[in-house]
Amino acid sequence: MKVTIKDVAKEANVAPSTVSRVLSNSHKISEETKIRVNEAIKKLNYTPNIIARGLANNKTRILAVVLPEEAEDIFSNPFFVQAMKGISISAQSENYYIMYAFKDSGKNEDDLWTKKFIDSNLVDGICLLTSKENDDCINYLKDTNCPFVVIGRPEEIDGVLWVDNDNFQAMYNLVHILIDKGHKEIAFIGAKENLNVSKDRLNGYIQALASRGIKLNNNFLLEMKDFTQKEGYIATKNIFEKDSPTAIVTTDDLLAFGVQEALNELNINNVAVAGFNNTPLAKYQNPPLASVDINSEKLGYFATKLLIDKLEKRETDHRYYIIDTELVERESLNKK
User: What's the pTM value of the predicted model, to 2 decimals?
Assistant: First the structure.
């Protein structure tokens, strides 16, 4: 027979409403009572009916995570897996559930998953994993007053919860490190130039060169369609048809993998290469790839924390978090 909330209440010697408040992580319940109720839940192996709770409390404790269309092949870019891990850990610690959906950028606004989630009253809040210029999702969520958070700096930060790295500074520092190693001819390969993260990293590259009096060479700057190894390979071939940089920075490790593939094919072994995201495969490349670790798991964790704090009406001064980055130096950075 299925265990009910009344069974838990009887075991813990409390009212069913108290069990419900413990499940909702109410601050009005004492720690002693929470411990007793949670022990009863564990002993009876009770699983709450989230649909019934949602109908009763007008709260489902479900968060929707809307992934960009390029994440459909979810294991092609480990960033999404790592960010989702952080999201799940944060949600689980607060007894929230996660629902994932993929955004189809080919659809118009009426078909956005964000609208479907809101109209269905199925979720309490929404997490977006990208931010771009003139973002329909962000604009719609603001207009409907739906609680949401963005991984990535939005164009307009007023009234928006968001988490990001200082992508400008991270790329600026990376380029300075290469300059200090003696490089002046540094190429840049990015992708999806409409994303704010792409804009920030490009600006960091341009300003780093300017700060050291190095003139921007347009032959060294390529913005590709996607963050893939294939695009990095194509970009590298295009660059070396026109010029010969001594170093290449990319805005994603997958692009950098393509750079290394092309360099190995061209038998060029004296070009320094660095990527972003410090994906697990970076250290297994030939040579091992230097990469800026953006702490993807922390991005997901603190984005979810911001959203849940809002949903739980907790007093906090935080409307955004900037997550630290760190360059992981490996053999690819020391080519010259």
Answer: 0.82
